[in-house]
Amino acid sequence: MDAPMDQEIYSVSQLNTEVARLLEAAFPFVWGEGEISNLARPQSGHIYFTLKDASAQVRCALFRNRAL
């Protein structure tokens, strides 16, 4: 599918940067509540998990420097 001629085409990095900027501006501090599943603690020291409720889920990462 081709983009319209007047539509900007974003690289993956640009898209991630713009989405992060928008989310951080709209939600500077977020507290979430849900069930933790798929918890993984690889040797890197990071913690990966899924936070879910009855109808949705969010994949999360807690980086080593924050997990200390």
Description:
There is one protein chain. With 68 residues, the protein is of the alpha+beta class. It is 28% helix and 26% strand. The chain has two helices and three strands. It is elongated.
Output the structural class.
Answer: alpha+beta
Biggest sheet overview: 3 strands, antiparallel
Tally of alpha and pi helices: 2
Mean pLDDT: 92
Query: What is the terminal separation in angstroms?
Result: 45 Å
Strand order of the largest sheet: 1-2-3
**Helix fraction bin:** 25-40%
Backbone shape = elongated
Give the number of DSSP strands: 3
Estimate the strand proportion. 25-35%
Spans of at least 5 consecutive residues with low confidence: none
Write the H/E string, N to C: HEEEH
Q: Determine Rg (CA atoms, Å).
A: 16 Å
Keywords:
68 residues, alpha+beta, 3-stranded antiparallel sheet, elongated
Task: Summarize it.
With 68 residues, the chain is an alpha+beta fold. It has two helices and three strands.
Helices and strands, with pairings:
Elements lengths: L11 H15 L8 E6 L6 E6 L4 E6 L1 H4 L1
Antiparallel strand pairs: 1-2, 2-3
